[in-house]
């Protein structure tokens, strides 16, 4: 846990501020200042070009390329991966004065500042450029991505000459020529490009997957057109002259419309896509830069009204958690068909833009309580990719559906066979997500229509992937890898078995409820999915006989059969220079002892918290925590939540220490690769489920708030049962009310209350069962 903060950005409750230009830190800042609106994302790179280290990252959700590796002779191995591809740079600019090109790597500048306003979603960058001949120009760049209509974005440049009058040349275009960072190749073919007096458009197609991105923009401002830009065959653009007057601000603006087409999982045809492109430019006529900026800020205001977490007395975490909430909404809000939450969101190319079990396990709760439509849409991704999961099951000699451990289109993209073949938790996470969603929203219709087909196939996989022990007394999963990726091929991993059992029980429960409430249609379901009583009985039987390794005496779940007897490693004695371990220890050495990467037993104790006594949680927490090295950023928050539950407040706060500022303080020293989007979701859980003590896995929404010593107070909102509940906590206790005055039933410290528009205030209680 020896992580050290790289304190760099200015602390401010609503802004991320960088003062002064530090080329060494520029790639980290590029990630931090990423903008996104689920549809597209763009890193905080310098649009005017920069010859220093930079990742010109411009991404579209669901637009990916494919790479084929050598085919393995072994069945079930993955040799084709798909990765989010770097796309059109729609912010492309070049700025010249007297033939001198602005490039922050070589140009002389002063008063550099970047500001990301979390409240409005607007990102600005300003500095004074001092040319070789001593001309001083103040430049301010501004950009935003529209939240109302995610195809739209704006860019503005304000230019103020401080000590001269004269011309500045601006080249502005749309650029498909950038390479993908991982592959180091440009992966686009150009289909079309065109310019008019004050506009341009471009259409690119990915070389392998033949997906399309169309981009067009309309320029406006104090400039005159000089001609077309001829920088490279994959760029289209215009050259403009702006005649500057000393002390006067001149403006250059553009509104951009981007349209993507990924072929799969989208209800529109290629023809429809082309006709959208045809009208795109003319549709920009109806928009105005400032109007779009304002309406986008309005979207953010409404979002903050129901999503903000306010922390009093802790400026660092205040800024940190707002940054996390901002990034969650930027990454995903459930509008775009086929969109996913990549482990790095739309902010970088690490993890290839792939989505993991993190989505249902860590991200879904945020959406269930902040944007239920998005939660549903996330689950729809798994419904839409069910056929792929069925194909994958066949490849792995299973029946039903085996969901991929890492994916962008629904296909398995993880080339590490031990993860791709042995980890069942992506599949059980889908069932868990459905269950959690239904448990909170009571949306049975969704479960009946979309959940049942997924649950049936998941249950089939569980009934075929597992096996009976030698004397057929219990059922379990052999040769698996649980969430703790440091135990490679184990038998009866407790998490896998527990989730397997819960999934089978939930599937049977949903089908039973369906039979009771829609008896006339039940047989149709049986017929449609070829379900027989024998198959259902078998699911029941394996659930009943599922082996859950547990030491009754010590009340400790055994992470897998034999875990208790593994050689012990004192993780506190591992030199900090050995971290991250996977770079310093051989792969097999990591697997040979009782050291764990991230919560495994503790994970299911958190997910199904209501089923376990505080005593059991405490005993397991005390056993597993000293063995965990938290090599995954998903780990500390779960420990923090459980530590709060068992009254270890100081430890809980220590674990929380870097949750909200993982990227702002570059704790893992890899923020330059992109943000840790799913651990950002864990930071939200850390406050709401941790200190707020919320639990959403029981029959009723529960809270057991506490307050970290350092904080004067905090508040958060969760949207639930048709209203938004506001929870305000200070040193004297917690108060609850609904924002629109609806009556909502909740439990606080195990007692039931009906809350409404009037605040009810309750003192703190610490419950030891
Ligand atoms: C973790 C996985 C996680 C993945 C993506 C890995 O380091 O061990 O649990 O799914 O990162 O976040």
From TrEMBL:
GO biological process: one example: carbohydrate metabolic process
Classification via Pfam families: Glyco_hydro_65C, Glyco_hydro_65m, Glyco_hydro_65N
Active site per UniProt: 485 (proton donor)
Alphabetized InterPro entries for the sequence: 6-hairpin_glycosidase_sf, 6hp_glycosidase-like_sf, Gal_mutarotase_sf_dom, GH65_N, Glyco_hydro_65_C, Glyco_hydro_65_M, Glyco_hydro_65_N, Malt_Pase/Glycosyl_Hdrlase
Residue sites binding substrate per the record: 357-358, 597-598
SUPFAM superfamilies assigned: Galactose mutarotase-like (SSF74650), Six-hairpin glycosidases (SSF48208)
Residue ranges of every copy of the Glycoside hydrolase family 65 N-terminal domain listed in the record: 17-256
Residue ranges of domain Glycoside hydrolase family 65 central catalytic in the record: 322-685
GO molecular function: carbohydrate binding; glycosyltransferase activity; hydrolase activity, hydrolyzing O-glycosyl compounds
Source taxon at top rank: Bacteria
Ranges of residues in domain Glycoside hydrolase family 65 C-terminal: 694-754
Family: Belongs to the glycosyl hydrolase 65 family.
Protein name listed in UniProt: Maltose phosphorylase
Organism whose genome encodes this protein: Mobilisporobacter senegalensis
Lineage: Bacteria, Bacillati, Bacillota, Clostridia, Lachnospirales
């Amino acid at each position: 846990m020896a992580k050290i903060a790289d304190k760099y950005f200015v602390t401010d409750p609503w802004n991320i501020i960088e003062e002064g230009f530090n080329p060494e830190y520029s790639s980290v800042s590029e990630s931090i200042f990423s903008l996104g609106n689920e549809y597209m994302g763009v890193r905080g790179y310098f649009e005017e070009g920069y010859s220093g280290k930079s990742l010109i990252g411009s991404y579209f959700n669901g637009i990916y390329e494919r790479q084929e590796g050598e085919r393995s002779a072994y069945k079930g191995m993955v040799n084709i991966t798909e990765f989010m591809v770097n796309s059109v740079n729609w912010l492309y600019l070049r700025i010249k004065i007297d033939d001198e090109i602005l490039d922050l790597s070589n140009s002389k500048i002063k008063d550099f500042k970047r500001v990301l306003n979390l409240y409005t979603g607007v990102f600005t960058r300003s500095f004074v450029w001092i040319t070789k001949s001593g001309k001083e120009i103040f430049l301010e760049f501004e950009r935003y991505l529209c939240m109302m209509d995610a195809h739209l974005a704006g860019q503005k440049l304000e230019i103020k000459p401080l000590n001269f009058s004269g011309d500045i040349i601006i080249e502005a275009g749309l650029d498909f020529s950038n390479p993908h960072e991982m592959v180091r190749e440009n992966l686009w073919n150009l289909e079309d490009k065109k310019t008019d007096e004050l506009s341009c458009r471009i259409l690119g197609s990915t070389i392998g997957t033949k997906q399309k991105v169309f981009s067009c923009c309309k320029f406006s401002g104090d400039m005159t057109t000089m001609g077309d830009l001829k920088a490279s065959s994959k760029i289209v653009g215009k050259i403009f002259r702006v005649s500057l007057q000393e002390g006067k601000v001149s403006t250059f603006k553009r509104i951009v419309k981007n349209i993507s087409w990924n072929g799969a999982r989208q209800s529109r045809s290629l023809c429809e896509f082309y006709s959208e492109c045809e009208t795109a430019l003319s549709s920009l006529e109806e928009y105005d830069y400032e109007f779009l900026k304002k309406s986008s800020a309005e979207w953010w205001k409404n979002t903050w009204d129901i999503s903000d977490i306010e922390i009093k007395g802790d400026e660092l975490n205040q800024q940190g958690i707002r940054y996390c909430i901002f990034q969650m909404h930027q990454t995903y809000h459930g509008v775009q068909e086929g969109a996913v939450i990549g482990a790095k969101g739309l902010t970088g190319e690490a993890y290839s833009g792939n989505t993991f079990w993190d989505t249902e396990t860590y991200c879904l709760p945020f959406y269930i309580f902040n944007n239920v439509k998005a939660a549903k849409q996330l689950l729809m991704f798994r419904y839409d990719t069910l056929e792929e999961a069925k194909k994958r099951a066949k490849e792995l000699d299973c029946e039903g559906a085996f969901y991929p451990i890492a994916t962008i289109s629904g296909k398995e993209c993880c080339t590490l066979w031990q993860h791709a073949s042995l980890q069942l938790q992506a599949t059980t996470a889908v069932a868990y997500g459905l269950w959690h969603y239904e448990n909170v929203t009571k949306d049975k219709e969704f479960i009946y229509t979309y959940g049942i087909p997924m649950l049936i196939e998941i249950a089939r996989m569980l009934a075929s992937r597992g096996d009976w022990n030698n004397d057929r007394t219990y059922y379990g999963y052999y040769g698996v890898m649980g969430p703790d990726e440091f135990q490679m091929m184990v038998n009866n991993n407790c998490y896998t078995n527990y989730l397997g059992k819960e999934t089978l029980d939930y599937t049977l429960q949903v089908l039973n409820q369906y039979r009771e409430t829609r008896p006339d249609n039940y047989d149709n379901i049986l017929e449609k999915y070829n379900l027989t009583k024998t198959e259902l009985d078998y699911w029941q039987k394996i659930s009943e006989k599922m082996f859950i390794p547990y030491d009754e005496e010590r009340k400790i779940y055994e992470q897998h059969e034999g875990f208790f007897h593994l050689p012990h490693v004192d993780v506190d004695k591992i030199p900090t220079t050995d971290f991250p371990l996977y770079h310093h220890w051989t792969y097999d050495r990591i697997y040979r002892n009782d050291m764990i990467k991230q919560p495994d037993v503790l994970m299911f104790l958190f997910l199904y918290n209501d089923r376990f006594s505080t005593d059991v949680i405490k005993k397991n927490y005390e056993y597993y925590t000293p063995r965990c090295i938290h090599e995954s950023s998903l780990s500390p928050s779960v420990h923090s939540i459980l530590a709060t539950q068992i009254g270890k407040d100081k430890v809980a706060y220590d674990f929380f220490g870097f949750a909200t500022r993982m990227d702002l303080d570059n704790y893992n020293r890899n923020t330059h690769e992109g943000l840790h989007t799913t651990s950002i979701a864990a930071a939200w859980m850390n406050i709401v489920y941790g200190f707020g003590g919320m639990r959403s896995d029981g029959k009723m929404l529960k809270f057991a708030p506490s307050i970290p010593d350092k904080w004067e107070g905090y508040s958060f909102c969760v949207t639930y049962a048709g209203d938004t509940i506001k929870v305000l906590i200070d040193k004297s206790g917690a108060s609850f009310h609904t924002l629109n005055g609806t009556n909502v039933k909740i439990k606080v410290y195990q007692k039931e209350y009906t809350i409404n528009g009037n605040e009810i205030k309750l003192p703190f209680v610490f419950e030891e069962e």
